[in-house]
Each structure stands twice: as C-alpha cells, then as structure tokens.
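Incident log, structure service

09:12 report received: a user says their structure output differs between two submissions of the same chain.
09:20 pulled the input from the user's history:
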Amino acid sequence: MPKRYSLILIIFFTVIILLLLTVSFIYQTKQGASNALPSFIKQQPSLTANKPTNSADNLGQESLLQLPLSQGLERITKKPFGLKISPQNSPVAPEKFSGLHAGVDFEILPNEENIAVPVLAVCAGPLIYKQLVSGYGGVAIQRCVLAEQTVTALYGHLKLDGIAAKLNTEISAGDQIGILGKGYGSETSGERKHLHLGIHRGATIDLRGYVQSTKELEEWVDVMKYLK
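09:34 re-ran on a clean worker, output below:
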C-alpha cells in the first residue's frame, strides 16, 4: 500500500511540474513575439504627428491670398515675381524700368481695354494708403496678415477715384478695392492697363516695384506661392 501511494504522489507532482513548465513556455513565447514586433505596431503614432507644419495643406485662411482679378492666374503672362527687367529684354515695350520685379503683373483680357475691370482685395485688413504715385498712377495699399506675419499689399495702376474705401477702413478678402486705371494716361502713369500686385514684408510702406538685388527682393513675398 505505501508503494501505491508513493507512485500516486510521484505522478501527481510530475503532472504539476509539466503544467508549470507548459505555462512558463507559453508566457515566454508570447513575450518574445511581442518584443519582435516593430515599434510602429506596438505603439502607433498619430497620423499627423510627423506631418510638416509648413506643408501646403496645413495653410490656414490667413496663409492664402484671394485672386485680385477674375481668371487671375491666366493673366500672369508678362511679368511674374522676380523677373529681371531692362528696356532691352522686357516683354513690354516701351519699357522705362530696370531691375528685379518685386511683384506680379496681371494683364487685362482682350475685351477689357475699354471697360471697368474690378480689382478685389487679396487679403483682409485696413486700407492704409491711397494716392497718385509716379510710375503707378493710382495706388492702394492694405495692411494684412499672411502666414502669421504682417505684410502690406500694394495695388498699382488703379483709377484713384475708383478706390471707394476711406483710409483705415477694414476691407475683407474678395471685396472690391478699386478698378484698373485707363491705359497710357495719368491713371496708370503712362503704363499699359494692368494690375501690379506687390506684397511687402512688415508694416512699413514701400512703393518700389523693382529692386536691384536679390537681397532686396527678399523683403517682398512671392505672391504666386499664396494665390488660391
């Protein structure tokens, strides 16, 4: 009888030991599999965690500019931003300016020479300047915020008395700020009928439409990067 009980005890403890070994093996196997998983599976980051903060699709409304004329992009055919101009190589004749173009020119369409062409505000902000300026004719300047920075938006070659807003009046993006001046007369300072749009960094008014170095050109914004 004692031998029988001894055998039972041996079998019982053997089963217990085997069960413990099995449980331990299963646990270690699971741990090893977990450690072998790539980090992106074990802890998935947010979908936007590594998205560049300055990417185009992250731009807010204050980082985009309204087109100043209907079919605006189709009108940029002669003088884009940064083009080096001289009387010898200009796409416009006659040409009286020289230097790097510190803005973008929007040309009129074939049927617009003798009709009123409305100019829309490209951004939201107060009108801080309106005056006749040599080389431009009528000029309106608006202070705005672009990409979280203060800028001034200059609209050149406007009909001065067509700028209806009073100084310091808030103008919303897309509102009419004026109309193009008549070509080759006092309203455009003898220039063709078109819009010169220049965006200068900071709150200081700078009337220049051309600069003489790339260093100076850095004071202006490349408008094409922000048009919507």
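09:41 both user submissions now match this output. Likely a transient worker issue. Closing.
09:42 reviewer note: The chain has two domains: 2-40, 59-225. The mean pLDDT is 84.
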